[in-house]
Amino acid sequence: MIARDKLLDNISLYWFTATAASSARLYWESFRAAFADFTPLPVPTAYSVFPHPDPQLRCYRQLDAGGHFPALECPDVFVAEVRAGLRALR
C-alpha cells in the first residue's frame, strides 16, 4: 500500500506544475489508437515470449513486486532495475 503522504506528494507535483493533462496524454493517445480498430479474434489464440527475442535486448527481468507505479510501490527495486539496465548498456 502506498502511504498517504507519498500519494499526496505525487498528486501535488502534477497539480501545482499543471502537468497532469500532459502526462496523461500519452495514455489517451495510445489507448485510443490501439483500440480504435479492435475486434476480438474469432479463433483461439496463444502468446509466447522467448527469453531473447531481440539480439539487442541487453537486460530483461520479470519481477515479483511492483505494479503500474513501481517507483512509488518499491523504489529500491525500481532503482536497482534502472541501474542494472544502464549497466547492461555499457
What does this structure look like?
This protein is mainly α and 90 residues long. The relative contact order is 0.10. It is extended and about 45 Å long. The protein is built from four helices and no strands. Helix content is 52%, strand content 0%. It folds into two domains: 1-40; 57-90, no CATH class. The chain has helices at residues 4-16, 20-35, 70-73, 75-88.
Short description, anyone?
The protein is built from 4 helices and no strands. It has 90 residues and is mainly α. The protein folds into 2 domains: 1-40; 57-90, no CATH class.
What count of domains describes the coordinates? 2
- Tell me the distance between the termini: 35 Å
- Radius of gyration, rounded? 18 Å
Helix content: 40-55%
Would you identify the regions where 5 or more consecutive residues have pLDDT less than 50?
Answer: none
What spatial form do the alpha-carbon principal axes imply?
A: extended
Oligomer: single chain
Mean of pLDDT: 80
Sheet having the most strands: none
Structural class: mainly alpha
| Binned strand content | under 5%
Number of strands: 0
